[in-house]
Amino acid sequence: QVQLVESGGGLVQAGGSLRLSCAASGRTFSNYTMGWFRQVPGKEREFVGFSWSGVKTYYRDSVKDRFTISRDNAKNTVYLQMNSLKPEDTAVYYCAATDRRASPRTYYYSRGYDYWGQGTQVTVSS
After folding, report:
1. Contact 95/4 with Cβ under 8 angstroms?
2. Using alpha carbons only, what angle is made at residue 9 by residues 65 and 7, rounded to the nearest 5 degrees?
3. Distance (Å, rounded) from C-alpha 124 to C-alpha 103?
4. Cβ contact 14:26 at 8 Å
5. How far apart are CA 18 and CA 93, in angstroms?
6. What percent helix, strand, coil does the chain show, rounded to 5?
7. Which one-letter DSSP state was computed for residue 26?
8. Exposed (0-12), middle (13-18) or buried (19+): which is 81, by Cβ within 10 Å?
9. What is the pLDDT along the chain (126 residues), one digit of tens a residue?
């Protein structure tokens, strides 16, 4: 089984940056698609981005050009670098993993993943 441990959340002012980490164990990391999601109270979990098919990455439009997913397969860790943060980015952020092969569209949805981290709070003040 894959275990995911997230870290790096915190409180920042609008325009600031945070780097979230997700450390994985239990499987060969390079074989997994890794996703990032976020959730605010009263709303469903929302897709942020994913890393798929080697070095390919995809993002929702509202974070594209501000957020960057990277992965270090040697360290079994994926990162979410968040720059130019806005108050609307405030949420609990989760990483997720799957080794199931599917079309890219599958990875935009929570049900496309099999393993989840515990979540880390990101708060952006105005």
Report:
1. yes
2. 105
3. 33
4. no
5. 12
6. 15, 50, 35
7. S
8. middle
9. 789 999 999 999 999 999 999 999 876 677 889 999 999 999 999 999 999 866 789 999 999 999 999 988 888 899 999 999 999 999 999 999 999 988 999 999 999 999 999 999 999 999
